[in-house]
Specification:
Elements: H1 7-14, H2 73-83, H3 89-102, H4 107-159, H5 165-189, H6 192-215
Helix pairs in contact: 2-3, 2-4, 3-6, 4-5, 4-6
């Protein structure tokens, strides 16, 4: 996941450096991330589950992952509507009920196809999100390493007695670099919690839509 920094934000950062960045002997702020020994691709509290199982959401007929739900035009058109979180669950309920009524003669089969489509699309979307979180996390680990390295270089040079003019100039550059890297790291880190919520939100949508479909399933046959 790439990070884009608008020019206005760059100016805010560059012209609002704290006091430690304006003196040659002051130290950068504490609380920098510790460099991690191993790269992790899952920063979330929730357990990582790359793929979902239909049985965890559905008590109807068994779903074959190769089921050809896209071959049914009505199903293929309704699935994106049910998957979209922009569609209130109340509206989705009406859509499912209307679909069931239109397919009364073959309701069980068509509703099963409908669930298969919704499950497939949400599971694929969720997998894409999980891969994106993994890429983001690895990038964040790399930035943590850069920040720790810059901080260590700054500390070593700040402790050195009798610094040359060139070293004093470099010390100032390191101060700016540490401040900049920390700002980027913390800004990205603050978004981790929200990213980690997305797979759960998708699962909740799947649960809700699956129940709507099951409520329309015939009791037998």
């Amino acid at each position: 996941m790439k990070q884009f920094w608008p020019s206005a934000l760059l100016l805010v950062v560059l012209f609002s450096l704290p006091a430690w960045a304006q003196t040659e002997t002051a130290a950068p702020p504490a609380g920098l991330p510790q460099e991690r020994a191993a790269v992790t691709d899952w920063p979330c509290v929730q357990r990582k589950v790359p793929k979902l199982s239909p049985g965890a959401f559905w008590s109807g007929p068994e779903i074959d992952e190769n089921i050809a739900w896209r071959d049914e035009d009505a199903v293929a058109q309704l699935v994106p509507v049910l998957v979209s979180r922009r569609v209130p669950i109340e509206d989705a309920e009406k859509q499912v009920a209307a679909f069931a009524k239109q397919n009364e003669a073959d309701k069980r089969k068509k509703l099963t196809l409908l669930f298969a489509g919704v499950f497939s699309e949400i599971d694929n979307l969720r997998s894409d999100v999980i891969r994106g979180i993994g890429r983001f996390s690895k990038n964040q680990v790399a930035k943590s390493g850069q920040l720790v390295k810059a901080r260590a270089e700054f500390d070593a040079l700040a402790r050195k007695p009798d610094r040359t003019e060139a070293e004093l100039t470099h010390l100032g550059e390191l101060q700016t670099q540490v401040q900049w890297l920390q700002r980027i790291y913390e800004d990205r880190e603050s978004s981790t919690r929200y990213m980690c919520e997305i797979p759960t939100i998708l699962e909740q949508r799947l649960f809700a839509v699956a129940k709507l479909i099951e409520d329309q399933m015939p009791q037998s046959g």
